User: Fold this.
Amino acid sequence: MEPVDALQTQGWVRFPFDAAIARWAAQARLAALDAVTDPAHSQWMDCEGSWFIGVDALPNGPDGQLADGPPLEGAPMDFLRQHFGTIPPLHRGQVSIVYPGYPRPRRGEGEAAFRYRARRDGAHVDGVKMFSDSRRRRVDEPHAWVLGLPLNDAGPEAAPLVVWEGSHDIMRRAFATAFEGQPPNLWSETDVTEAYTAARKTVFETCKRVTVHARPGEAYLMHRLALHGVAPWAAAPNSEGRMIAYFRPPHPGHLRDWLTAP
Assistant:
């Protein structure tokens, strides 16, 4: 299956080893190791020390390049340009590091929320955020795409990414239902809780759950609407954990385009 077909059919695609990506990942791994011990990022160590969430913890520039490091180039970036247009200025990457023992409760997490994360891999669509104490949800940060770049080789059972194949189509229909009858300029304020919750249930019942493992130099791209999460750690212990850098640039258009674009 061609990469673009896999992305549109399955909701994700893996790219094979690319020497340019491997060079970038080697430099990014060193930066990630520095980030996890930097007191400025201490708030991102959670789950009783089993997950460094690492939002904006990678000190890359808007082109993805790290200081004195190689450019972020290679087949995945070529694919993004070909199918999504010019790559926008990139945010500082997320450094997601999961350690043996994951999952454990997050700070302030209730029993039901922890149980969902442990049993359902914390399945979510990026950009759908809670906006009240009653755990209501709306589309607050629509993304263009999600690119994962492994920084170390931790093995396929070391808390891999989980994707429900085909879930992006179900989630698209759910959001369309939630927005129906609402003026497009109010979509970002629309409560999507019921539609989102029902769609996740449908996904769990009808879509194939797959774990995605890749090594440094490889990469994977996920559809912006795909339901995904993180599996529990089931590998032999290691001190470095499982390290992945993620880029999720904002979708450049209106929420209507985020919803309807391929």
Summary: The mean pLDDT is 96. The longest helix spans residues 19-37. The two ends are 17 Å apart (CA to CA). The first strand starts at residue 12 and ends at 15.
